[in-house]
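Dear Dr. H.,

I hope your travels went smoothly. While you were away I took the liberty of generating a structure for the chain from your last submission, since the lab meeting agenda had it listed for discussion. I wanted you to have the full record in hand beforehand rather than looking at slides cold. The sequence, exactly as received, is reproduced here:
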Amino acid sequence: MKLRPVETGITPAVTTIFSGFTVSDIIDAIVEKKVAAVCGWLDTVGVRPEQTLIVGSYLTGARLANRLVERSSVTVVDIYPHLRHLLDRRVSFHTTLAGLEAAGWDLIVDTTGLGGVSPEEILRLNTPEAFLVEDPCSDGSDRTIRKTSRSSLILGLIPAPEKGALYTAGLGARTSGTMTLTMAVLFCSMRDTLQEEGVLYSTAAMEFYERVLFHEKDPGRFRELLDRPALAVSTLSGIDCDGIIAGNLALIRSQVEEWWCNPNESF
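The corresponding predicted structure, in token form, is as follows:
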């Protein structure tokens, strides 16, 4: 977090206060919760993988790969080759699962979410000691989103001895995706500032970041946009922007749920 200067507004009576939190800081805090949940689960079930396959290299998958490469050989598969820049150089990167079916994976993690890798593609891989899927649903998911999720189906089909779903919730966001949750933190924080005495208005650094990364394919601009103050408040008195953001981040919880339910049911 960086300390940001306070600026005078249109008149000397009004000040603009910026958060020290950047959008990137919020993303980091969310993915750290997810990675901690996964690593904690692996320790709990006693799985110490030597060969790990992660499908999906966007925010969660990349951070998990970069953490697990400290304890395992890690391979990441993603259809977007320019996402390679998110990964540690020690991580092996592929754009397709072709040719990886016969490898002896100890741990397979699917972070592709809604409309990602199909059950058929996963079933072509060897049965690992542990299988984990990131459930794209959250506590604000509607019926259409829950019906579109295939995490329960995939978990029901994979005969791994240890398997679970990474579930992240806490702000009523529509999905558990890291960017979705980041937008929820920004929205809730902006709303919360308006409850403070003397606040005129509040703005958040909301932008369609994923379009820059996936359609414009511009990782440099993507990183640059994320490195902006997450919140700016026009106010007649002081306000703790970072405390408000931290309070909303604290509401997000991430955990691995052991697989036990009917594969035809959703979480």
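Two observations you may find useful: Residues 23-45 form the longest helix (23 residues). Confidence is low (pLDDT under 50) at residues 261-267.

With kind regards,
E. W.
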